[in-house]
Amino acid sequence: MIPLITTIWQTESWQRQMQQMIRDPGQLFSRLNLDLSARPGLAEALEQFPLRVTEAFVAKMQAGDWNDPLLLQVLPQAQETNLHAGFVDDPLAELEANPVPGLIHKYHGRVLLITTSACAIHCRYCFRRNFPYNENNPSQKDWQQALDYIAAHPEIHEVILSGGDPLAASDDYLDRLISRIADIPHVETLRIHTRLPLVLPARITAELLTVLSKHRLTTVMVIHCNHPNELDQASIDALNALNDAKIQLLNQTVLLRGINDNAETLIKLSHRLFASRVLPYYLHLLDKVRGASHFDVAEAQAQTLMRDVLASLPGYLVPRLVREDPKASSKRPLALL
Ligand SMILES: *Cc1c(COP(=O)(O)O)cnc(C)c1O
Ligand code: SF4
Fold it and tell me: Radical SAM core domain: from which residue to which, for each copy (predicted)?
């Protein structure tokens, strides 16, 4: 007979999984049968940006493989502390487009709200790794300023919840925030940028689906999946549940050296996303943030790669190759060779 205790473990709440995420490199390496002493110089990299990863994400990694494409996304590396010309703290100049705390207004018709500073994973290439979150982590009181700003700008049709990861916030918090956004008549679309369907699929609960479906706004969710191995059954189930709740699903990927910088991986990723009813949206060139230069793929190489991707996929499965340009009025599309 199967003991009852297994059921309890399987239904562990997302909050508990989030609390128990791995923050200690020793714990991560022993979980993956890797020898910590083989990697000197981690301490300084960790000081700049701590380790965070959920068990659900680690479970998709191959034990014993230092080059696992999911491990490389979270693995602190000594080389992060090397300085490289052009790799800076605020590569997108977001602080210049930050009119009130927690709100970034850079592009016409849409604003980005920094819903929470928390993430269930720390991606080493993240452009927000050096962002002054403490000054941009609004309390309930501060929402009023951001909401007043949106209300005073009738051209804003779309509000993007970003972070951090907005789904790291509680259902109740999201419910209150979304209903206040929906009270602003000219806002039509709610967009959520999240990595949790891949990193913590247990977050996609029936209660969350209710919160995301019950308001009048059209809802788009942009997930952030970099590699086909991230799409295991638990994540596919979460995506199907979101899709069944009439949430339009799109994906953005960051092109990362040693992780997904080959046509075969990108083609497989598009096919697997589509099988989960997610359409590829953007393929981003790396934002040149301090500490992430080892992930950089040159523009010309990216363009060559895209030629092979384009030759192998139907048009609707080809993501747009873009670079974020602090001075441009949109993400800047790169011409394909
Ligand atoms: C990427 C981004 C958006 C959204 O751009 P889309 O092209 O609509 O996906 C909005 N605001 C900021 C600050 C962004 O960085
Ligand atoms: S904001 Fe997104 S990319 Fe950055 S660490 Fe969090 S989940 Fe990763």
Answer: 105-320
